[in-house]
């Protein structure tokens, strides 16, 4: 009987911690993101993507606009389907888009992101 109560209390504790983490993740979203469809907690929008990919993106752009965001797992992807918006991204904001994301792996294995493959855009 004591073992069952111990397991139930441990399960309840894990459940409450998981709920708290999910609520914290949901409330600390990055601001100023393009609109996106609802996502699942771990896989993001991978359940929405069907073959062929260009038709799925076209249907999503019809619903959410020419610029929208998707999460593939934990990676955020912004999809731009308007030629004028693409031109603006690659002419006016090209330096911002040329940077590589700073991964934790690059910090520890690539000498604080200073190798040729991991270094951000700039003089280095």
Give structural notes.
The protein has 124 residues and is mainly alpha-helical. Helix content is 47%, strand content 10%. It contains five helices and two strands. It has helices spanning 2-27, 53-64, 83-91, 94-98, 104-109; strands at residues 67-72, 75-80. The protein is flat and about 70 Å long. One of its GO terms (molecular function) is oxidoreductase activity, acting on paired donors, with incorporation or reduction of molecular oxygen.
Key structural traits:
124 residues; mainly alpha; two-stranded antiparallel sheet; 5 helices; 2 strands; transmembrane helix
Please outline the helices and strands.
Blueprint: H1 2-27, H2 53-64, E1 67-72, E2 75-80, H3 83-91, H4 94-98, H5 104-109
Antiparallel strand pairs: 1-2
Brief description of this entry?
The protein has 124 residues and is mostly helical. The chain is 47% helix and 10% strand.
- The secondary-structure element order is HHEEHHH
Number of helical elements: 5
Give me the count of strands. 2
- Approximately how much beta-strand content do the residues carry? 5-15%
User: Pairing-aware structural class of the strands and helices?
Assistant: mainly alpha
Mean pLDDT: 84
Keywords: Iron, Membrane, Metal-binding, Transmembrane, Transmembrane helix
Pfam families: p450
InterPro entries: Cyt_P450, Cyt_P450_E_grp-I, Cyt_P450_sf
Family: Belongs to the cytochrome P450 family.
